[in-house]
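Exercise 7. Predict the structure of CPBP family intramembrane metalloprotease from Streptomyces calidiresistens.
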Amino acid sequence: MWYALWFLLVTGHLALPWAMRAFARGGGRLRWADPLRRRAVDLYGTITIALAAAAVAGMVAAPGEVTAGFPGVLPSVPSTTGMPWSLGPALVWVGVGAVIGVLIPSLAARAAGRPRHRTRGLPPRALRISACAAAEEVIWRLVATGALIHAGMSPVVAAAVCVPAFASLHVPRHGRRVLVYQLAFGAVLALTAALGGVLAAAVCHAAHNLRLAGTTAVRPRPRPTAPVRLPSSGTW
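Solution. The predicted structure, encoded as tokens:
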């Protein structure tokens, strides 16, 4: 029952951006849906957060043996108090995740010759952007990866399978040109979750998206070309 619920949640989220693109291409046949089309990004975020909340509620309600082996929210470093995790490494990994999340889009933009410059203040709807990023990590790095582990996959294979699925979420809106970037970013998130816990991956993802939303890419100015020297009129 629990695995069927998580399977429906994960596949529903995987299909969500594709269904929204098909809905947006409906043209003018559904005039009542025009406000939804204009707020597609907000709608995606709301549904993603709701799916993640449902997944977490299912994990809390499920018996312990069902969720045993799922990726940890915090790094598995035993503390001196007997807890299965220690606050120090958890905070370190949260900080590492934040730094990585900021650096990835900055370095990628600079490598592409289009450095990003920050706008003033926090991006609009920063809280929603962060919540949506964290929800995606819950769905893909926690629920999807954990369900695949229980299906018999090794943790490494399960995490690797989720990377291309995560990358495909961005194709309907941004096109196939973002696949390489999103595959690399998904791999970084999977590695961060494996080493530092899903919370660190969620912070990394949120920092990444906030960096993109709070900066603009600067197009390089074309270099001025030297004027063409004309032969003197005496040689015409």
